[in-house]
Amino acid sequence: MATIDFKRGDSLYYTVLYKDADGLPIDVTGYTIECMIRYQYDDVTPAATAAVVITDATNGTFTIEVLPAVTALFTVGWARLDIQYTDGSSRIKSTDTVNINIIGDITR
Hints:
Blueprint: E1 2-7, E2 12-17, E3 32-38, E4 48-49, E5 51-56, E6 61-66, H1 68-71, E7 77-86, E8 92-94, E9 98-103
Parallel strand pairs: 1-9
Antiparallel strand pairs: 2-6, 3-4, 3-7, 5-6, 7-8, 7-9
């Protein structure tokens, strides 16, 4: 399970390449891609829902972003995220969970 350090109040922005087991890009044309951040796995309401923009569907590339106005409200401590893919046949696959170490911001 991956872990990232993140400063509360910063832009949470990543470019993602969806690949198969051989490292080849997966075409995400017709996919729905979602990404949520939760403090606990069973939290009913997510701390944030990332905006997902597919930038190159054929090559499996997209961005996820949570704006600073939202991340400024994050609680310092641990949170988790994953990315969920739903293909055109309604099959769902999720990534491994990523742990987020939310660190307090000094400059704000």
